[in-house]
Amino acid sequence: MGKSDGYRRKIIKELYFGNTLSCAELSNCINKSLPLTTKILNEQIKEGYVVETGYAPSTGGRRPIMYSLKEDVLYVISVAMDQFVTRIAIMDVQNRFVKPVEIVELPLSNNPESLTKLTEVIADAVEKWDIPKDKIVGIGIGMPGFIDIKKGINYSFLKTDGRSITEIIEKEVGLPVFIDNDSSLIALAESRFGVAHGKNNVMVINIGWGVGLGMLLDGKLFRGENGLAGEFSHIPVFNNNKLCSCGKSGCLETETSLLVVAEKALQGLEQGKLSLIKDVTLEHIEETTNAIIEAALKGDKFAIELFSETGYNIGRGAAILIHLLNPALIVLSGRGSVAGKLWLAPIQQAINEHCIPKIAENTEIKISSLGYHAELTGAAALVMENYDKINRSKTVTEAIAV
Fold first, then answer.
1. Residues 66-97, buried b or exposed e (16+ Cβ, 10 A)?
2. H or E stretch covering 348
3. What is the tens place of the pLDDT at every residue in 98-126?
4. 45, 85, 93, 400: most buried, per Cβ within 10 A?
5. Which residues have a Cβ under 8 Å from the Cβ of 114 and sit 6 or more positions away?
6. Number of C-alpha atoms within 13 angstroms, CB side, residue 27?
7. Taking a C-beta distance cutoff of 8 angstroms, is the pair 323, 355 a contact?
8. pTM of the predicted structure, to 2 decimals
């Protein structure tokens, strides 16, 4: 990849994240002269990658021309996995879904065929969508577990005997592949396109079948020494003698996940609790969780109590984060964020009770604006963050290593 091609890729990358930028802004972003940036922009306009979108709002001087990416020239395949369900989407460079999101039941625990199935599902989707591969930048995959993004390995799921997940999928599908932890990608999405945009110190809590965490410190995604930072689920908080998925007991996850909400809902219904929630089972966990959220949003007393109890326990974990990291903002994101404001009061109550007031006084709590799509958006952003490094003659593992 030559220098000129590198600058062109950087401009496309900056326009993806910035949406609409002036030539001067792009010149600063790529750290190149205004004449060179203008030359590259004009070439990209002729080639159909970039379009002029009018003039910037008046600030008293001459208004600059603004530029953005053309809608139908580049696409990203975005994959969002959890322990039970995988969603696959193809998105344009405005982060819009080009085709309906594909939803596939794909359990990860104790499933030696999970990687084979994932690869087949992605390959089938690419073939069905019938979009030329030269227009697809790459594939971004968010997944739960302990992930080494440089080696392309998930130490928790999708076992490969040390082989790279990215290389395996690349070989079968013929496109660059990037993987990362689901909570990290949700934090990336919130930072780039959500309520955390422009904030430097943010904790993004991913409420799902566990309760994950993505950390933005000094404006950057913090991953720790070897990429495994943010295991919020496994902070030992409770003396409840409940076994966690990690093998320990009393972890935050044992009292805070949507799986726990579903389990407690079924227990309450068996004990005769009155509720709008009907005909739910753990065998159909996604439908059960959706039914509980829907009931709570309709004012169902029992369902609201479930979210109040769970929210309070999330707040206890959030209090620990506030004491350690003093964030400006805590974002509630992921699948569970669709419950919206139901979370806010109990979480704030726990913070009020467990935090030193002076430390917590400037920490705001917000519900994600991206909601359940945050992981899909983050997976697409992961690909575009690496756009200027992609070289089709190298594997992603080699490109990241460089």
1. bbbbbeebbbbbbbbbbbbbbbbbbbbbebee
2. helix 344-354
3. 999 999 999 999 999 999 999 999 999 99
4. 93
5. 106, 107, 108, 157, 158
6. 11
7. yes
8. 0.91
